[in-house]
Amino acid sequence: MTRSLDEGRITDEGLEALRRRIGVEIPREPPWYSVATEDAIRNFAEGYGDVNPLWSDPDYARSTRWGGVIAPPMFMLSMGVSEVKEIPEELRRQGAGGGLPGVHAFYSGDDIDFYQVIRPGDCLSLRYALADVRVKESAFAGRSVHEIYEAVYRNQRGEVVGKCHHLIIRTERSAARERSKYQLEVQRYSEEELQEIYRWYDREEIRGAVPRFWEDVTVGDELVPVVKGPYTHTSGLRYLMGAGMPPPAARYWVHTHSVMHRYRKKHPGAYPLTPEGFPDSVARVHWDHDLARRAGLPAYYDFGAERIAWLAHAVTNWMGDDGFLRRLKARIIRFNYYGDTHWVRGKVVGKSVVNDECRVELALWAENQRGERTAEGEATVLLPSRVAGPVSLPAKVRPGELLVFQDVVPEYQKGG
């Protein structure tokens, strides 16, 4: 029997099955990129609209401290071959292999620690587990479930490249439709408004080869805004071409033809029927107004990981080639719909020296044309110092960073 799109419910039994997975390492599908290449890195950056030559121009990149192309920070999430290949049999017998089938999932936030850059030729392994499950009440859909997943990435040299906690919010589609919290019309722009957006694009500032020294930064400094939009189907399609389906979904919901058929036999809820009566990906909420409305929204919307990449873009533009994004914590708080335009902004809110690292703290936010903040975040950046010298990698691990995988960090990366 084909599962109805709206059939999924948040039940006590489903929550119990989900909680049995906490702390249990689970496999992910093969990543979008098993090996970093110059082409993959360039396509990823272009997918979210980042033209920094450090990611895309080998001749330019050879002149930097890195000696060649490196990947933008969020590229890490499109990599990672699972070290574990199967769900433990005991867990499978208990019926905890899935959890809350058919309940809508929104990619709602990341808390990412970066320790090392990714270069062409790098291969990453991945350890992945559910770290926590929390039940909340929301104005959008009533009872909701917050799932927090932990992912740890290591390269072929055994270095911990990064660690991420993903926040996934699960809601019942029927409850969201009934409440109809979000009501709006797709944005229309005058020619004058479009020209103003284009002028913002022309103002984008990539710090690049000019070092931004820690001593020159002052609390209160503002980042030059990065504009994104108006958002279109093409925007989302181009992001998927570069990044793939972001975790934890990975490639689960973008299969086609015989690959889709085989996957759908095991997971029918991932490919509900269209109004015309044939199956298509549940991920089409990102390009299909009708399916988005069935999830309680007025129009299709972007990918959460995509908008978080926008926040990272503003940071890497600001910090220059010699800086390093050490931590990015971001939360999606509103939707970015078809037609919306965003200005990604930030300012310096602190600076310090910790474990011999010259750190700058940034507050970040994305604001749409209606003046609404749809994403907020904070970043820690390591900058070169006129006194202490260049940034040293891998970065140190802060105490308490790892919740599940305590055994992955080499001694030389542990901080004080």
Structure description:
With 416 residues, the chain is an alpha+beta fold. Helix content is 23%, strand content 24%. It has 11 helices and 10 strands. It has helices at 12-19, 38-47, 53-56, 58-62, 89-93, 173-179, 191-203, 233-243, 257-266, 289-294, 304-319, and strands at residues 81-82, 104-114, 124-138, 142-155, 160-171, 226-228, 324-332, 342-354, 357-368, 373-382. A 10-stranded mixed β-sheet has the order 1-3-4-5-2-7-10-9-8-6. Strand 3 and strand 4 (142-155) form a beta hairpin. The radius of gyration is 21 Å and the shape is globular.
Helix content: 10-25%
Q: Please tell me the overall pLDDT.
A: 90
Profile the largest sheet: 10 strands, mixed
Shape: globular
Unreliable stretches? none
Oligomer: single chain
- Count of DSSP helices? 11
Which key features would you list for this structure?
globular; alpha+beta; 11 helices; 23% helix; 416 residues
Provide a quick synopsis of the model:
The protein has 416 residues and is an alpha+beta fold. 23% of the residues lie in helices and 24% in strands.
